[in-house]
């Protein structure tokens, strides 16, 4: 399709000769961004789910989920490269019908708004654990974080703009692993853990318990909503082969982290009533230890970074809807009218980004309260 083909501007290989390996559009930073889109609040609860169903079921589920993630990322990247379109809305418009674009975009928006609200809620909960703040202070903190941190970061034009924050965020999650391992070393293996409970869970699990575990695994690899745009940002040119390598790296990072947290989380905090709903709850008794405190702050940083990746699909849907309403194409920004040195297209993009953050803050602060 010629309508979308120039969204990603190819870069000559000679221009990248001396470029950093962590440059915009590089394989490694793209993989880090894609893994960060998946590594959100779910990593905090994988140990709790593992305690319910056992490490065998959890690991098999993570392996199958990872394989399906690899297949889906390849399919999406192939569709993006083949059509030259870098959003689900434009891909569906090119291959199917605008109605499919609206439906797909709406589903992405619902998913991303819900996830974004969840990240702000987790951020507020961690703040409450660290400071002992009351409910009104928690809501105020969430609102301030959303306005002064999430709002400005949501305005970035490209996903890979977040690559350094994403790398720092993934590294920050390692502090959580360190704290769990430290707790295990200090207190030993929990008394409720035996070879039987480690392998198969505490017992008494129902079909809904296993379904809930599968649901957690599905969301553990939920980063596909950023794949079209990240594919378009690859340099020197987008390619399916490059995105396959990206998917292997990103899925591998997620898989290793989930398995490590599952194993050490169960060993440290046990099964049944001993295991809290999340690692934040599990670490509550030792929150005054400096490294535990640091790991909790790292969790806040991690979920706030993940928040940003969920804003991009909302902006893409809004951009598509505005373009259609104005009768313009995906590549028409250069010919658009300008106000204050920015195109009207960009102003609409800024407005949609800020509006999406405002809606998410409202859900996290008002509706969930």
UniProtKB/TrEMBL annotation:
<protein>
    <recommendedName>
        <fullName>Amino acid transporter transmembrane domain-containing protein</fullName>
    </recommendedName>
</protein>
<feature type="transmembrane region" description="Helical">
    <location>
        <begin position="347"/>
        <end position="367"/>
    </location>
</feature>
<feature type="transmembrane region" description="Helical">
    <location>
        <begin position="140"/>
        <end position="159"/>
    </location>
</feature>
<dbReference type="Pfam" id="PF01490">
    <property type="entry name" value="Aa_trans"/>
</dbReference>
<feature type="transmembrane region" description="Helical">
    <location>
        <begin position="290"/>
        <end position="314"/>
    </location>
</feature>
<feature type="transmembrane region" description="Helical">
    <location>
        <begin position="248"/>
        <end position="270"/>
    </location>
</feature>
<keyword id="KW-1133">Transmembrane helix</keyword>
<dbReference type="GO" id="GO:0015179">
    <property type="term" value="F:L-amino acid transmembrane transporter activity"/>
</dbReference>
<feature type="transmembrane region" description="Helical">
    <location>
        <begin position="165"/>
        <end position="184"/>
    </location>
</feature>
<dbReference type="InterPro" id="IPR013057">
    <property type="entry name" value="AA_transpt_TM"/>
</dbReference>
<feature type="domain" description="Amino acid transporter transmembrane">
    <location>
        <begin position="27"/>
        <end position="368"/>
    </location>
</feature>
<dbReference type="GO" id="GO:0016020">
    <property type="term" value="C:membrane"/>
</dbReference>
<keyword id="KW-0812">Transmembrane</keyword>
<feature type="transmembrane region" description="Helical">
    <location>
        <begin position="55"/>
        <end position="73"/>
    </location>
</feature>
<keyword id="KW-0472">Membrane</keyword>
């Amino acid at each position: 399709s010629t309508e979308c083909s120039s969204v990603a501007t190819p870069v000559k290989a000679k221009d990248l000769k001396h470029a950093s390996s962590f440059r915009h559009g590089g394989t490694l930073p793209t993989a880090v961004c894609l893994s960060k889109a998946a590594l959100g609040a779910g990593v905090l609860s994988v140990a709790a789910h593992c305690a319910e169903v056992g490490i065998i079921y959890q690991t098999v589920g993570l392996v199958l989920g990872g394989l399906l993630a690899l297949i889906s990322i390849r399919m999406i990247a192939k569709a993006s490269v083949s059509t030259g379109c870098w959003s689900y809305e434009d891909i569906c418009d090119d291959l199917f019908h605008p109605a499919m674009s609206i439906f797909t975009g709406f589903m992405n928006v619902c998913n991303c708004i819900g996830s974004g609200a969840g990240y702000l809620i987790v951020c507020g909960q961690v703040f409450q654990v660290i400071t002992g703040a009351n409910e009104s202070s928690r809501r105020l903190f969430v609102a301030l974080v959303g306005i002064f941190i999430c709002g400005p970061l949501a305005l970035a034009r490209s996903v890979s703009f977040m690559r350094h924050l994403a790398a720092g965020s993934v590294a920050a999650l390692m502090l959580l692993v360190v704290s769990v391992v430290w707790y295990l070393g200090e207190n030993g293996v929990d008394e409720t853990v035996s070879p039987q409970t480690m392998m198969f869970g505490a017992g008494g699990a129902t079909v809904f318990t296993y379904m809930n575990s599968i649901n957690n695994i599905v969301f553990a690899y939920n980063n596909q909503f950023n794949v079209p745009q990240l594919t378009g940002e690859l340099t020197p040119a987008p390619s399916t082969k490059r995105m396959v390598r990206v998917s292997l790296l990103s899925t591998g990072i997620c898989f290793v982290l989930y398995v490590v947290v599952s194993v050490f989380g169960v060993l440290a905090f046990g099964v049944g009533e001993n295991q809290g709903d999340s690692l934040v709850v599990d670490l509550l008794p030792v929150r005054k230890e400096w490294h535990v405190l640091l790991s909790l702050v790292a969790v806040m940083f991690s979920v706030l970074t993940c928040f940003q990746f969920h804003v991009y699909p909302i902006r893409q849907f809004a951009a598509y809807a505005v373009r259609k309403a104005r009768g313009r194409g995906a590549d028409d920004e250069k010919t658009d009218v300008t106000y204050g040195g920015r195109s009207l297209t960009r102003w609409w993009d800024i407005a949609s980004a800020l509006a999406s953050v405002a809606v998410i803050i409202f859900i996290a602060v008002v509706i969930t309260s």
